[in-house]
Write a structure and sequence with these properties.
224 residues; mainly alpha; 78% helix; globular
Length: 224
């Protein structure tokens, strides 16, 4: 490797370490003291950097505190890309989420220390929840592109990828909310299965109702 290539790589590693240090400091301070009792300056001081450095990496203390969750969407999307091509898209999304939950190296939320606490706080703090929402939306945009590729369609013209991801992500969100409110840190996988089962049941009920309505309309038209 040439010296010219080593310099940017060293800078990149240093930047990654600085970002991770700031994120970890924000994460711990917010959980230990509460979001409203922590300032950006205190996070920067805990990470041994100045306020200007913090602003190069994060727009707010909320973004820093939640940065450890951003990679989870990437992990779910990587699992979605790896699902077998013949799987129906919603089933592939469900199994991708379950793959993420089951992978010890991925350290899903129920395996990672204090993530349960962080999501409890996010449920209670509107500004934190808003940032969490944006993180989810970013991940869902990538999911839509993956599902569109699986179907061989343009997501700008075909609504199915967006509908699939909205349904799957909605089930995951419902499972996460039930998990947090249920108070059992180890219960996330069973909540996810429960949420996706409920989604499948609702979809089947809607399909059956649609078939019945179509048949009734046809009978009505056929009646003299």
């Amino acid at each position: 490797m040439t010296p010219e290539r080593k310099v940017p790589e060293r800078r990149s590693r240093k930047a990654r370490r600085t970002r991770d240090t700031l994120a970890q400091a924000a994460f711990e301070l917010v959980l230990d003291r509460g979001l409203r009792n922590v300032t950006v300056e205190e996070i920067a001081e805990a990470a041994d950097v100045d306020r200007r450095t913090f602003s190069r990496y994060f727009p707010s203390k909320e973004a820093a505190a939640l940065d450890s969750l951003r990679g989870d969407g990437d992990r779910i999307n990587a699992a979605l890309r790896a699902r077998p091509a013949p799987e129906p898209p919603l089933l592939a999304y469900r199994r991708a989420v379950l793959d993420w939950l089951a992978d010890p190296e991925a350290e899903a939320w129920h395996r990672r220390p204090r993530i349960f606490e962080l999501l409890v706080v996010a449920e209670e703090e509107p500004t934190l929840y808003a940032v969490f929402h944006h993180i989810r939306v970013d991940a869902q945009e990538d999911s839509i592109a993956i599902v569109a590729d699986r179907l061989g369609v343009d997501s700008r013209q075909d609504i199915r990828p967006a509908v699939t991801v909205a349904a799957g992500a909605g089930a995951l969100l419902a499972a996460q909310a039930a998990w947090v409110r249920g108070g059992r840190p180890d219960a996330l996988p069973e909540r996810v299965v429960e949420a996706f089962d409920a989604l499948a049941e609702t979809a089947e009920e809607a399909r059956a109702a649609g078939v019945e309505a179509t048949e009734e309309a046809a009978e009505t038209e056929a009646t003299p």
